[in-house]
Design goal:
- Keywords: Cell membrane, Glycoprotein, Membrane, Sugar transport, Transmembrane, Transmembrane helix, Transport.
- This is Solute carrier family 2, facilitated glucose transporter member 12-like.
- By secondary structure, the protein is mainly alpha-helical.
- The protein is built from four helices and no strands.
Length: 124
């Protein structure tokens, strides 16, 4: 990709002077997203068994976009109502609740194949 020139100042240019679309190595490096933004999509594509991978990716992608939309639509309104510190506190509590859920309910799968994990989860 050819970097976008901006004659009015840095604008959308990254600190290195490249356009935001070229972060991560351009088209060969994954396009417009920096490497850390691609990690969840890579992990999601690897954790589902082949038989349900397409449907599971569709569901998780829809949930991801839906939650992002919900947060985007409500953030400014809620910030005006209760203030930024309380909004950040609520998001922190939600993140901690998610962490507790993962630690308590998600089994350790290190060193197991997807088939072994499926058998173990089917028993539960």
């Amino acid at each position: 990709m050819v970097p976008v020139e901006n004659r009015e100042g840095p604008g959308l240019l990254s600190p290195k002077g490249r356009a935001a679309e070229t972060e991560g190595g351009g088209a060969a490096g994954g396009g417009r997203h920096p490497p850390r933004a691609r990690v969840p999509w890579l992990l999601l594509s690897e954790i589902f068994p082949g038989g349900i991978r397409g449907r599971a990716m569709a569901l998780t992608s829809s949930m991801n976009w839906g939650i992002n939309l919900l947060i985007s639509l409500t953030f400014l309104t809620v910030t005006d109502l209760i203030g930024l510190p309380w909004v950040c506190f609520i998001y922190a509590i939600m993140s901690l609740a998610s962490l507790v859920f993962v630690v308590v309910f998600i089994p350790e799968t290190k060193g197991c194949s997807l088939e072994q994990i499926s058998v173990e989860l089917a028993k539960a």
